[in-house]
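Sequence in, structure out.
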Amino acid sequence: PEAIEAEFEGAGYGDFKAAVGDGVAEFLAPVRERYGELRADEPALESALAAGAEGARAIAAPVLADVRAKMGVAEPH
């Protein structure tokens, strides 16, 4: 914090705001790059999402069945 304070001593809020924006953009650059890579292969992305949904359903099914049984609610058809 002291180094940042010293760097911006005498500078205006706009200078600090611009530097923060640049820092955030630089920090997020790898995330933005990876997002672009993932979006470029739409079939692989859809496959990964489908596999995740299938896995989530497998985990949730017994829990939901138990909840329905305890509440006396019938399974949806």
